[in-house]
TrEMBL record:
It comes from candidate division CSSED10-310 bacterium. The keyword Transmembrane helix applies. The keyword ATP-binding does not apply. NDH-1 is composed of 14 different subunits. Subunits NuoA, H, J, K, L, M, N constitute the membrane sector of the complex. It is an enzyme of class 7 (translocase). It comes from the Bacteria. This is NADH-quinone oxidoreductase subunit N.
Length: 489
């Protein structure tokens, strides 16, 4: 593929890079009172990249370029759209949040756009070197965004913890990748797959994959690599917390699935996959899935801070999505992609409401939520909607997402895992209901009405509408997910 064709296939990324330059220059040119407009430039760039990505679906054949380090396929396009939508929501969210208004607006939006670009390359990478570069782009810039509020000691502490955990996880993963290169003599995933299929490397390969799984597990907040998550989510500005809960998590799943299914499986009949080699990684993932959802849900029960509670909830949802990996079937992969879409709207929506309430009452503690259902009705009603969707109650989108995941696991005959998931779903209803009870049924010490800005109403509604509609009519999203997994076949 020549350079012109290659550049066209990464034209969404080029648009994002141009937008970053425009945002940085606007920060220098605009007077301080107008620098918040850099957020609108960022949002415009993401909308433009979104429509270019849609147009790229017309190129319906997979293509490798840039020395076979990056691939264009339906899988990468699915996640490009995912990150562009989530990035747009976070930018609009940030424009209305007190935590991200003030100085250095251009720097904030430029960093956010750069992280989105790194996430896109994570999902397109088919070479160990590119995987590492993309992950480090996301990681290093994320550390800065978490600590962006320099006046907050909590934000600085969260950034330092994130840096330490991230550097450790990356080092362990890189150690495993170096041995994988030594074992196979190549850094390309498809060449690695050919080498593994032709060699007898059982124990060595198992140790290597365990090291690499540490890096992937860190990105998706999989237990036991989840310890950074609650502190980082609590300390970071709420828009960044919302972004970290969906963006890097989705990229981590995209990379994990591409890596393991490309190197350690082969397509079989009727959408199934067979494991290559002696490493029984599906069983390991099943155990980690059950462990992750259980740790997340049990830990959430004791939390008094809403952001920490949602952090442990995010860990639990990573455990649910890991069930789709275990199935070794396109039904499981389709369920993961669909769940990521519904999780995007209901989780970002929940954090949007938490930010709106924080701006109104100045607190994120559940005890301070008492009685706010009467003081600012819109925000608590929306938060209840998102929490019940996260639980998986019908007729909301979370129910359909869990239905597809659970059905795929049942169809594969892994009954013990779906039993654990059902028990954990019941547990999650308890701690989500605690927040709803505090908002609507407990008496608060304050009765003064709290206003909600029009922009907050708009951004929350943008997330609430898909949360409702996808619980009633979801066929187009399922079909889209089905088309996007063809790269693994």
């Amino acid at each position: 593929m020549d350079l012109q064709q290659s550049l066209w296939l990464i034209f969404p990324e080029i648009i994002i890079i141009i937008t970053i330059i425009v945002v940085v220059l606007a920060e220098l040119i605009l007077p301080p009172q107008k620098r918040h407009q850099t957020g609108w430039f960022a949002a415009t760039g993401l909308v433009a990249a979104f429509f270019v990505t849609l147009n790229l679906f017309k190129v319906d054949t997979a293509a490798e370029f840039f020395g076979r380090m990056v691939v264009h396929d339906a899988w990468s396009l699915f996640f490009k759209l995912f990150f562009e939508i989530s990035g747009f929501l976070i930018v609009i969210f940030s424009l209305g949040s007190k935590e991200t208004r003030g100085k250095n607006q251009g720097e904030y939006y430029a960093l956010l756009l750069a992280v989105i670009m790194g996430l896109i390359f994570m999902t397109s990478a088919t070479d160990l070197v590119m995987i590492l570069l993309a992950m480090e782009t996301v990681g290093i810039l994320s550390y800065v965004l978490v600590g962006f509020n320099k006046a907050s000691s909590r934000s600085g502490e969260a950034a330092l913890k994130y840096l330490i955990y991230g550097a450790t996880a990356t080092g362990v993963m890189l150690f495993g990748m170096s041995y994988l290169y030594g074992l196979t003599g190549t850094t390309n995933l498809f060449d690695i797959a050919d080498s593994i299929a032709q060699s007898e490397t059982g124990f060595t390969l198992t140790v290597i994959m365990l090291f690499i799984l540490v890096g992937f597990g860190f990105k998706i907040a999989m237990a036991p690599f989840h310890m950074w998550c609650p502190d980082v989510y609590e300390g970071a500005p709420t828009p960044i917390t919302a972004f970290l809960s969906v963006g890097p998590k989705a990229a981590g799943f995209a990379l994990l699935l591409r890596f393991f299914f490309s190197t350690l499986t082969q397509p079989a009949l009727d959408g199934a996959f067979t494991v290559v080699g002696t490493f029984k990684w599906p069983l390991l993932i099943a155990i980690l899935s059950a462990f992750t959802m259980t740790v997340g849900n049990l830990s959430a029960i004791t939390q008094s801070n809403v952001k920490r509670l949602l952090a442990y909830s995010s860990i639990a949802h990573a455990g649910y999505m890991l069930m789709g990996v275990v199935v070794l079937h396109t039904a499981g992969l389709r369920a993961i992609l669909f769940y990521l879409i519904v999780y995007l709207f209901m989780n970002i929506g929940a954090f949007m409401v938490v930010a709106a309430i924080r701006d109104g009452i100045g607190s994120e503690e559940i005890d301070d939520y008492k009685g706010i259902g009467r003081r600012m009705p819109f925000a608590p009603i929306m938060l209840a909607l998102f929490l019940f969707a996260l639980t998986g109650l019908p007729p909301l989108s979370g129910f359909i997402g869990k239905f597809y995941l659970f059905f795929a696991v049942i169809d594969a005959g892994i009954y013990w895992l779906v039993t654990v998931a059902i028990i954990n779903t019941v547990i999650s209803l308890y701690y989500y209901a605690r927040i709803v009870k505090a908002m609507f049924f407990d008496e608060g010490s304050q009765t003064t009405p709290v206003p909600v800005t029009p922009l907050q109403i708009i951004v929350v509604s943008i997330s609430a509408i898909p949360t409702l509609i996808l619980g009633i009519y979801w066929a187009p999203i399922i079909d889209f997910a089905e088309q996007s997994i063809q790269m693994l076949m």
